């Protein structure tokens, strides 16, 4: 499954290539609770067709009513070039209720009218090639600049200029092609991750059945090196085999990956750390980013439940949420008196 940002921009490009009038809406500021994060995008075509989301649905309905259809503002008489427009939703309690915003929630959208096809085409091609792109919109005239970026940056908006980083998509590398990997990869796909599964054991990788997942049969440590993890990469060892997991995890820990972890019991994870310190010169500090046992404690027993637990932790780390220690598997089992 591709990134929703890429889909929004690709559809917008195709609409503009076909000569349709269209608008790009981007969430640029929020106050209080908001249903969608800063940077969320929606493209709206003149006939009301749209892709992406800037809220739970009510703001989309209002944008369609105001800007699409025969009477919509995408058909302004005598206007062919328009500056970007800033609109705010949820300023009053009545508006918040009307638009389905949480209590106290307010958001601002930057609306770009009829973005140039050539610039959109260049942007989409770069994103499809896995390039990280910085897109800058100048609000005084709608001019758009595209530059290469070296690392993801937080969206910047000062009322005059919008700068955001787009692509490449989030990626997940799973070591081990068992049942847990099938459930976890399925969840990762519908959360917008590009998923690769690595397992040199033919009896496992040969039975893989989840479509949309790239499979690799090389040794996991070589695969991690070839994967070239970046700040949008998660790497999870699921094989339970130290010969496969350990070297791959060592390579991953010395990369910019935002999440590195391994399945297993508390005892197995403690043994893994001891091996890494004794045989590979790692220290407690260098292993601080190694997560294990992975997941949050929800009493999971089946592969599907464990996958939910692991995916929840990965998403929390991705979204910058500091989870309380009480939900960690290690803490919860220690205080429940469960076996290691």
TrEMBL record:
| Pfam families assigned to the protein according to its UniProt record, in alphabetical order | XdhC_C, XdhC_CoxI
| Origin superkingdom | Bacteria
Q: Where is each XdhC Rossmann domain found?
A: 172-314
Domain annotation XdhC- CoxI: ranges: 15-66
InterPro entries under this entry?
MoCofactor_Util/Proc, XdhC_CoxI, XdhC_Rossmann_dom
Name the chain's protein.
XdhC family protein
